[in-house]
Input
Amino acid sequence: MNQLECLLVDLFSGDDALAEAAVPGLARLGSIALDPLIRMTRSPDPDRRWWATRCLAEVDLPAASACLRAALHDDTASVRECAALGLRQSPSSEAIADLARALDSGDRLLVRLAADALAASGPCAIPTLAEAALSSNPAIRIEAVRALAATNDPAAIPALFRALEDRSTVVGHWAEQGLDRLGMGMLYFQP
Output
């Protein structure tokens, strides 16, 4: 067996420690490992899809990012969550629309991870987060405002000011945190 085959055997061995140890080696192989990993994202076995997604999160190629975006729509929650975490590690402006849809998933962990990935995407995600901060769903508003606060970008200030008036104290808390980080603390109080 060649190196790729050995690493793939380890990745899909069912032994989590062995699989995790194979991830860096497969990531270093880059495009050589891409096709078999992409094939595994379509496996009927959710564990294989998860490990393929986990590995693709470490591969810095556009095709890997496209697979992560597709995995955000997987039938299995853990695969979707893994994809969102991968997109946080390797932000992609192309993933913003998919991550925005994930905010409305009802899976609280996925919502948090998607919001983190949007925050990591930088200024291009601020309009999406600002819109999510107006959602009727308080869980989405909380995560959107938390992510806006995490951007540390002055473009988030208007949305953070709007969030101060939210009926949720948690949303208000994150808005205050974001404004404080941006040097706007206490400016929102009028004497």
Summary: The chain is about 65% helix and 0% strand. The mean pLDDT is 93. The first helix runs from residue 3 to 11.
